[in-house]
């Protein structure tokens, strides 16, 4: 059993739930139209929003299957970093408690993805 199995499953669940609910409650379209298009990504906001969510679903499947882990990780980390830059940084560190909608959750996901991608640490080849 791979030592990252539980982390891979946990991140996959997070990515899937964050994506699938947005499909059914129009959240993806709203994020594209009401946020991304408004901050300068028009007319591509909805396309970008859907691309993000589709990448999350693909990454979740790859994590569960333990395939193309580094590719899935790098793409997801890029999305999370952009989320920090565009959305969460201005709100501070805390998601709840000392603030709201901050960067701490994305930070934790990035570190977990790095641990999954490099379970034995980074080794120069």
What do these coordinates show?
This protein is mainly alpha-helical. The chain has one domain (5-117). It is built from 5 helices and no strands. Helix 2 crosses helix 3 (45-65).
TL;DR of this structure?
This protein has 125 residues and is an all-alpha fold. Helices cover 68% and strands 0% of the residues.
List keywords for this structure.
single chain; 125 residues; 5 helices
List the helices and strands and how they pair.
Elements: H1 5-24, H2 27-36, H3 45-65, H4 69-88, H5 104-117
Helix pairs in contact: 1-3, 2-3, 3-4, 4-5
Helix content: 55-70%
* Oligomeric organization of the protein chains: single chain
Mean pLDDT: 95
Poorly predicted parts? none
Number of strands: 0
Kindly provide the radius of gyration, computed on alpha-carbon positions and rounded to a whole number of angstroms: 15 Å
């Amino acid at each position: 059993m791979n030592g990252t199995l539980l982390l891979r499953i946990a991140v996959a669940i997070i990515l899937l739930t964050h994506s699938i609910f947005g499909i059914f409650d129009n959240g993806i379209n709203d994020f594209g139209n009401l946020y991304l298009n408004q901050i300068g990504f028009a007319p591509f906001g909805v396309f970008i929003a859907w691309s993000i969510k589709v990448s999350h679903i693909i990454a979740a499947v790859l994590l569960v299957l333990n395939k193309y882990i580094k590719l899935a990780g790098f793409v997801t980390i890029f999305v999370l970093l952009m989320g920090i830059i565009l959305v969460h940084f201005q709100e501070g560190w805390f998601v709840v408690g000392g603030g709201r909608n901050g960067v701490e959750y994305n930070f934790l996901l990035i570190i977990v993805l790095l641990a999954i991608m490099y379970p034995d640490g980074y080794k120069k080849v």
